[in-house]
Design goal:
The chain is mainly alpha-helical. The protein contains 3 helices and no strands. This is Optineurin.
Length: 146
């Protein structure tokens, strides 16, 4: 899904920033050992420290973004699972209603009165509409997750 790809890209950038930060920190330590009191090196060290701090802030920002995206992804998964459960229940109800209708059709000897038949047809119609609505919701959720 697009959300997951975006999360992976952000994570890759975060790792890349960590690697750059470590390299800059190592370079700073090497320069400090080679020329502890050199004025030019001191300026470069300050610049490197500034860059390291800036990268640390970027890493923190990316970590926050990752957590936010993970939360969104988990929420979407929960909604999707809830819709799947509801869909399953509606399918079960529809199946039961269809079986009931078939049973009633098969019992020609004990023909039900028209009111009972109308009620069952009405229930079947409601179940089919509910199933169609849930299927539409599931399709929308699938599109938002992909």
């Amino acid at each position: 899904s697009a959300l997951f790809r975006e999360l992976q890209e952000t994570h890759a950038k975060l790792k890349e920033a960590d690697v750059i930060q470590k390299k800059l920190h190592e370079k700073c330590q090497i320069l400090e050992q080679e020329h502890p009191a050199s004025v030019g090196d001191l300026d470069e060290k300050q610049q490197l420290l500034y860059t390291v701090k800036k990268l640390e802030l970027q890493v923190e920002s990316m970590q926050s973004e990752i957590k936010l995206e993970q939360t969104k992804t988990n929420d979407e998964k929960a909604k999707f699972n809830s819709l799947q459960d509801a869909h399953g229940k509606v399918v079960k109800e529809l199946t039961e209603a269809l079986l009931t209708v078939e049973d009633l059709k098969g019992k020609e000897v004990q023909r039900p009165d028209q009111a009972t038949l109308d009620e069952l047809v009405h229930k079947l119609d409601l179940a089919e509409k509910a199933l169609a609505a849930k299927q539409l919701q599931i399709d929308k959720m699938k599109q938002t997750l992909m």
